[in-house]
């Protein structure tokens, strides 16, 4: 019942007592992949709206089903004893999709989560092999281009991590919100070694890597 200037309005569907049981949870994905969010409501709901950074991207009517505003935002729906669950699917995620994902139902508190879309850039060491002489100090540069967020750079020799004091990493802002990094490793070798530069962000299941084989040549 809504009171407006002493007039009683009875609005169908608003008399039900319903609520959001489970809202969406935070997600971190790589750009180009799918992101999925679930929202479960009790019986009696009329309209469920999904919003991305405050903009409605998909609406679902209890009587007519989903209304899609963009081909990249679709849904799958499930009904069981716990209530109605709407699964929002964001296809081909983009860096600009990062932000607040909200599930809103009329006359009920909305629930929200945050989406972080990350970009897996390139990683390269200029030379794949390098000849190193005895007592020679070498500098090896590893370049990461087009990442979001800025990647965490580490170095390994064979199967062991190299102490951070042996390398310096500089970060710079690239284009379109992407980040670059240049890491320079300084070493004096006593044997032939395989050196590996690793770049990591949360969305990557395993760090990206680039390697260089340093062939040690004894001066004698």
UniProtKB/TrEMBL annotation:
Q: Where is the signal peptide?
A: 1-17
Q: Which Pfam families match?
A: I-set
What UniProt keywords are attached to this protein's entry? Signal
A GO cellular component annotation in the UniProt record: bicellular tight junction
Record carries keyword Signal: yes
Cross-referenced PANTHER family: IMMUNOGLOBULIN SUPERFAMILY MEMBER 5
Q: What is this protein called?
A: IGSF5 protein
